[in-house]
């Protein structure tokens, strides 16, 4: 098993911490790869709520989930991840997945932004059950990536250690500002 990409690495670590058959949120739907992963985790008994503001993301995700025969496991919302709490009550999610940045192959001006990403993470933590896990794929570079990365890291650093365990990973010997996988476990 080669876990050289951030999503592969974070999927495997997420899978080790989160039980199958639960309720999961894909806070940044993109092209649906993380939504598909969460649908596989949900099995027949769980469900996935996936969010994105771009119609192209919903269309791509819908198509992928239909092709893979798991479309019935997911609810797709064209809404900001800041509004996830409109769709689930507090402490009801087993896991939440964020993959920050922009839609691959899409308009780079429609990337996630530090202010809304931090707000969405805060909303997400209120939705996590105890022992729930939030996975974060943090990218830097581009127009706003460094700013967003720094805001996310600052937010993670200030989380109360009595309530949350925060684990930050890095590709230590990679050049050109490699992405950083991070995990937050609600105690």
Automatic annotation (TrEMBL):
Key words of the record: Methyltransferase, Transferase
GO MF terms, alphabetically ordered: methyltransferase activity
Query: Which InterPro entries does the UniProt record give?
Result: MnmM_MeTrfase (IPR010719), SAM-dependent_MTases_sf (IPR029063)
A biological process term (GO) from this entry: methylation
- A Pfam cross-reference name: rRNA_methylase
- Protein name, UniProt field: Class I SAM-dependent methyltransferase
Q: Which organism is it from?
A: Candidatus Blautia stercoripullorum
